[in-house]
Structure formats: structure tokens, C-alpha cells
Amino acid sequence: MRPSFKFITAIRRAAAAALVLAALALPACSGGPTETSTIDIIHWWKAGGEAEAIKALLDLFRHQNPTIGVVDASVEGGSFEARAVIRSRISGGTPPDTFQANGGWDLMAWVLYNNKNLDLNKMQQIDDYAQDWIKNVPEGVRNSVSYAATPDDPHVYAVPLNIHRLNTLFYNKDVLMNYHIDPATLTSVDALFTAAESIKQQNPQFTPIALGYGQKQSWTLALLFCENLLVARMTGKAYQDLFLAPKPLDAFTPSVTYALEDLRTLVSYANEDAGDLTWDQAMRRVLKGEAAMTIMGDWAKGYANAQPEHYDGNTFGFMPMPGTAGTFIYTTDTFGMPIGASTDTIKLLQTFGSQEGQQTFNRLKGSISARLDVEIALDDDRRPTYEDFAAASASKMIFPATAILAQQTWIDAMSGALADFVGKFPNGVASDVQHTMDNYSDLLFSSCWPTCLTP
Ligand code: BGC
Question: What is the 45 CA–ligand 1 centroid distance (Å)?
Fold first, then answer.
């Protein structure tokens, strides 16, 4: 899918038509303080930083729209639990008014409900309301919320709120200094392991790399394996090709085998209770000086800044995952409007797409705004991410997260296989994971987003 003026013009044309319909559909504004409707929203932002960010955004909306109620219908747990509720509500015919989905396949699963085309689509097109933000959102993110049944007819199905980097290493500054590790030397996966080994030699009781893949968070293993280790071993482009240009027996290529061995090595430097912790508990250990480093999406930055102790740049540092410098693996959190949603939902999505909404949310979230016209101050700790994103865009080194590129079924299967692999540490069998990857390759070969791979 190439973006473009053609894309924007087609969206505008659709928008003009839809505006008329929307004007007819929206109820007249009451202007009074009484609540006239209620919107329910589901998301999985429960940890520090992310919880504050969505609260601030919904508060902004409530302030702007005092007559519209917002009910946070989210459930306890993380993305696993939230996606299960979203799935059962949409499939059962009682969709929430809006819900969190990563861009790409996570969202498109509802647009291409039969995995092929729009025949069973569950989502409304929101082209007319995209006008405010669409030209300010980078191409990849724009594409991740769009689907074109024919190349000339793209439509927008959700508002992207943010851009997160997934290939990020966080470290405790004092700890690395005390163990005589200069973060500037962490330029490859092997250098990372050398540093971890050195820490272990100096203090066998100390955790060089904190991990947390417990409590139904085996998605963190997919993040480690796909968006960090594979990218480091095979480059971002080759990682992306696994999904957009798959080849038979990809699962058995040497880079995949190496990345699995890297994962085994990583676990050898991790806390023994990694299978019980969540991602934020692992990050907390780094902040408290109980571990040296962790690898996580940069929502961990929002988490650190939201702690009562308010950790800042004196406590922790972050950098691209060793071996992936210059490459930016991104995801985006998006909100769309299922068919049957309350018409006022569009007002919520307008706030989500506005500069003020994105500023309010992303400052707390640790992400940069999906809109690149939202300013980031020079002393904001998201500034390096913003600059890295710009540099990676210029050098064509930005690549989508696995949630964008692959159906959730593929990710769940891989996360399960990886959990099994690390659960048997040190005896996990790499080829078991590779067989799972191979067994689920049909999903990749038959993918119809962004376009059908096979006719
Ligand atoms: C989302 C992030 C979120 C993280 C952990 C990811 O899927 O994109 O916004 O912070 O999950 O909850």
C-alpha cells in the first residue's frame, strides 16, 4: 500500500459524502449539563504511566463534553484479558463503543472479520473525522488504520493515538557504573551478553537482565524474540519480510535459530521468577537497583515517570536494543468505532485525534504522538525517541511491530511456544518453536492486509 496524494484525495472524497450522513445522524447538541449519552471504552492500560495517561485523556474529554458520560469497561489484567473481552463482545453482537487495538492486524481483524474482505466488517469508516490528523501522521501509522478493498478506495477505521518504540533497552545508571559497564559499549547482542556475564561474574546473586513474562504476559516473549532478537540478528527489513514477503521454511532459517539461542542466553541472565512477574514489575527492579537492565517497549518510560519516587534521567537510561541501533520498530494504539456504537463516540475519537488530546495522553504514556505536529520539548525524555523516529524514517529503517504485521492467532501461538521454550530452561527445544512458527505460516501466506499476498 503506497500512501499518497491519491490516498488522501480518495479519503477526502469519501469524507465529504460521509459528513452529510454524519450530520444527519448526530443528535442535536443539548448544550445543557445533563448527561445525554454514555460511551463505553475498553483498553488494557493498567500499569503505572499508561493508567494515568488514559485517565487524563478521558478527563479531558469529559471536560470538553460534560453531557456525555464515559464508562471505562476495561477488565483486570493486560492485553490478553482485554482482547478476550473485546472478542467476546464484538462476536456476541454487543460491541463496546470503542476499544483499544494496536494498528494493523489487531485492528483489521474486525474490519476483515472473515480474514479476506469487508463482507463481515464490524467497524465503521471514519474518514470524515480523520481530516484533522491524517496528513500529520506518518505513512506507516496511517496505513495501519486504513484498508483499501481496491487500491483507489482506502478508508480509515480508527484514530492512532501514539507511536511506541518496541526495541528499547532500559538500564539503571548507577548499577551499570558500579559494575563498570559503559552503556556505549552495548552495540550488539553479543556485547549485551558480555556485559551481563561480567555482572554475573562480579556478583552471582545479582540480576543482569530483569524479565517478566508471567501472569498471562507471554506476549513479552514475542516482543523479545520478534521485535528485538530477530531484528538484531536479521535486520529490520528481513524481519518485516517474514510477514509481508514470507517464504516456505522461513521458520528454519539460521537467523531464527540464532535468535532462539539468544533468547535462551537472555533467560540465563534473567531473574529466576521471570515466569511470575509482569513487564512493569521487571522494570521496577531496574529502577530500584535490583537489576541492571530490561528490554521493553518504551511505555516502560511512562511507567518509570509515574512512580511515586518519580524516577528520572538520573536513575535510568534507555537506548535502542543492542544490535538494532538506527532501526525503529513501532507500534501504535488505535481506537475505532464498531458498527452499532453510540454516535457520540465520534466526539471521543475527535478528542483522541486532536493535538491537545495527543499531547495530554502521550506526555504521560512515554510514547510520541501519532501526530508529528505535536511538539515535544527539548528536555522531555521522549525527545530522543522523536529524533530517532525522524532519522529512521529518513533512512527507511522504521518497521512495524508484529501486532501490526501478523494476526493475533499467530502471535498467541508463538507466545505460547516461546513460553514453553523458556519454561523448560535450559532444555527448551528450539525446533519446537520453529515447528509452531512453520505450522502457523499459512496465516501469513493467506494474509489479506494490507493487501492479499495470494490472489
Ligand atoms: C500497547 C502499549 C501498552 C503495552 C503494555 C502494548 O500492546 O501498545 O500501549 O503500554 O501494551 O500494556
Answer: 7
